[in-house]
Design brief:
24 strands, single chain, 5-stranded antiparallel beta sheet, Immunoglobulin-like
Amino acid sequence: MTGRRQCLAALAAGVLRAQSPAGAPTATSAAGPVEFTCPMDRDVKQSGPGRCPRCGMKLTARLPEPAAYGFDIRYAPRPLRAGVETRFDFGILDPGTGKPVRRFEVVHEKLFHLFLVTGDLGYFAHEHPSPRPNGRFHFRTTLPRPGAYRAVADCYPSGGAPQFLARTLITVDADASALDAARLPATPFVQQAANLEVELTLQPPLPVAGFETKLFFRLRPAAGLEQYLAAWGHMLAASDDLVDVIHDHPLYAYPDEPRRPQVQFNVIFPRPRGYRVWVQFQRLGVVNTSAFNIAVRELA
């Protein structure tokens, strides 16, 4: 993996250079100026210390090059079965030693973000397993139905680079169609969530694989909008065959402006496929989740 915003598919990205605050020092070394980079959004760079304007994380000097850590999943009871409470135990393995990582950095208020989606993309969960003294993370859940599940871990091992890792799990009671591509019919561009209406506009209206797509979300009512996990929104996109999984946060947010889209995500869908995009926004203490199906075409 080469960054938190991608999994199993290489995503191109433009460079957003944040400006240093007036009077901020510029770091230098014997080899010349030191570049500070956001660990989460590696396209955000500047010449001095500061915080990422996109996700708020502290910029890091000499950020290590990405290295793919291992993702170990244990569960009980075995075999994995739908409808039964299952205890999951997650471990992140150091790429050099193969041993479990024991220390992690906080990312968006948590040490470990877990996403679970079904192969048909009909089920989505964003959870935060509990850390254990041995560095592993514990989580209990009941898988709602038989089939394939994509488990995605988003975390930041101390001293390393942020990780976005995925494993596929298949319940013992799944049928032969468990790994078939999901069918993604068109979804409404205006949806009612728990206490929020979410309207999506795409630019361009017909996204093209390998090129940037802007996703604008207008949220109504605007009163009471709040940050959720230190961001104005969270997005997970998955391709219909579960190969591509993308996690992102808003590039721009205007929570107090009801006359324009309040939240903007910029995404590069890597392949011409169907994608399901889940977005989460918080209003008055309630997390609202909406899902939109987006057809991505090949460049003609």
